[in-house]
Amino acid sequence: MPDGYSPTPRAKIKRSHKRARYDKATVFEILDAAQMVHVGYAIDEQPYVTPTMHWRDGDTLYWHGSSASKMLRAVRTGIPACVTAAIFDGYVLARSPFHHSANYRTVMAFGRAQAVEGRQAKEDALYKFMEELWPGRWDACRENYTQEMKATCVVAMEIEEAAAKIRTGPPVDDEEDYANVKVWSGVVPALHKYGKPVADDRLDPDTPLPDYLSPYRGR
Amino acid sequence: MPDGYSPTPRAKIKRSHKRARYDKATVFEILDAAQMVHVGYAIDEQPYVTPTMHWRDGDTLYWHGSSASKMLRAVRTGIPACVTAAIFDGYVLARSPFHHSANYRTVMAFGRAQAVEGRQAKEDALYKFMEELWPGRWDACRENYTQEMKATCVVAMEIEEAAAKIRTGPPVDDEEDYANVKVWSGVVPALHKYGKPVADDRLDPDTPLPDYLSPYRGR
Question: Which residues, including other chains, have CB under 8 Å from residue A100's CB and lie 6 or more apart?
Answer without folding.
Answer: A91, A92, A93, A94, A171, B130
